[in-house]
Batch of 2 targets.
Target 1
Amino acid sequence: MIIGSKVILHDKRLGDALNDYTWRTDPELAQLDAAPVPNTTFPKYLSDYASELRQSSSTRHRFAIDTLDGKHIGNCGYYDIDETKGKAEIGIMIGNRDYWDKGYGTDAVTTLVSHIFHQTNLKRIYLKTLDSNSRAQKSFKKCGFTPYRHLVRDKYSFVFMELHRDQWRGNSKQKLNQVRA
Ligand SMILES: CC(C)(COP(=O)(O)OP(=O)(O)OC[C@H]1O[C@@H](n2cnc3c(N)ncnc32)[C@H](O)[C@@H]1OP(=O)(O)O)[C@@H](O)C(=O)NCCC(=O)NCCS
């Protein structure tokens, strides 16, 4: 369990499946994620979910995002972990709209980034979001990410953003000094 200021990140569990299915099959969320809406029933989704939970992976780690009082509001994780190049991609979704624009996404990403840099030797974390997703970009900038590349793939136009360990360390020190001043 990883505790942030507004959220707790924990390993996925079977009880998260219904919310995840609801969010995965929500057309607006799928559009924001540049993902197709899966054409699968809940029982099939649940069975795949259960078998995925039984497998451990060294190239990705997925977490549920809960509020501090235990409400499941979204998911995040890191994927495509490349230890040779020292990089990984992160992803996030606050599925419960009641929790948008209230700082939960920013805290979840800040908490995830801190966990990754403390627990691994990775040097660079990156992410991608749609060029049109201004909310996401604003949130990621607040977490210290900066845009470095644009890419058009299929019908989607993406911006890639990155955060290097050194920048993150510098930002953390700066925040600490502001608190002490
Ligand atoms: C993107 C997401 C993770 C951001 O998390 P969040 O908790 O909503 O974001 P935060 O409240 O931490 O920050 C959002 C900021 O964007 C601002 N914002 C909201 N809509 C905006 C818009 N259309 N244009 C510019 N800024 C906007 C908010 O006011 C806030 O800034 P502030 O703190 O200065 O007021 C979350 O909204 C989410 O998952 N949304 C749905 C799925 C999605 O977008 N998926 C793609 C993610 S790559």
Target 2
Amino acid sequence: MMSLIVFLSVVLVLGILYMIFRVSSLVGVAKAKEGKPDSANTVNAALFVVFMILSLVGFFWYSFTHFKSYTLPVASEHGVRTDGLFWTTMWVTVVAFVIISIVMFVFLYQYRYQPGRKAKFYPDNHYLELTWTIIPAIVLAVLIFTGLKAWTDITGKAADDAEVIEIVAQQFAWTARYPGVKDQTLGKVNYKLIDNFGNEFGLDLTDKNSFDDFKSLELHLPKGKEILLKIRAKDVLHSVFLPHFRVKMDAVPGMPTQFKFTVTKTTEEMRKETGNPNFNYELACTEICGRGHFSMRMPVIVEEEAAYNSWKAAQETWLKQNPNYLKKVPDALKEAAEIKAGIQKDPGAGVAAVTE
Ligand SMILES: [Cu+2]
């Protein structure tokens, strides 16, 4: 009832405002004298110029005083390149924006109504039209093709020795899967094998490469080595976002995606650069994926390659953590699986093979 009254009052007030506007404009028409311009015409035209000056000053003031709060330090090789592309595009569009704004508002003032001045009929000018078509076309083509080149490099084939890591998204957490240190190859997965008892990756245990894979809830990355992130989603759309590395790629159910990049600064180095001893990289979900979306973040730790390798070697394999899945391993591979997963010591090769 109350909302109905509020609604009707709003309609009534709008109706009254409309009637006042109609009456005043009709009075204006009745009072106007032929050929004498309204002084409000010049005032309005001048106000447009004032508006333009204030807006442009505000625009540049805001952009420069808050510059640091919307740019993050960059920590990847391709990030420097994409940042360069971003700022080139930004400057080209800012210059075009300023020129268009000035011309638009100054012309409004310059060509306001004045008695005795008639508009000139100027149907077309081929040179003018060619100029304002060809120049923007060339500039846009250069911007688009340099961007496309960068994109094909990022999403292209990774180096053979690249560090392959799988990122799996689900409502509302990220899980990483690393190839084990013994075979350095991710085992096969099949979404049909995903279950509620522990096989969250859908690991295919008939593939011997899966025996030493391990799971991590932190994303550890080596500095200076090419990394290939293989990304998939188990339920809805998510998106991998590593802002400092300028990495952003959607995680799509049923359609694996990937992104390759090389990190250039360790967490420690970034702490020194930012002057923040608590600095940490993070992986955030940047696709609204449900009500727990805000909590979908994963700590990221970047180390020198040696430290990274020793972290990897210290991790327990997935199969060792879920030994009841040994029954899914074909009989012929069972012993190899136990050795590779670190459940049983390798009797043939001795201690060296286990600690390798
Ligand atoms: Cu998400």
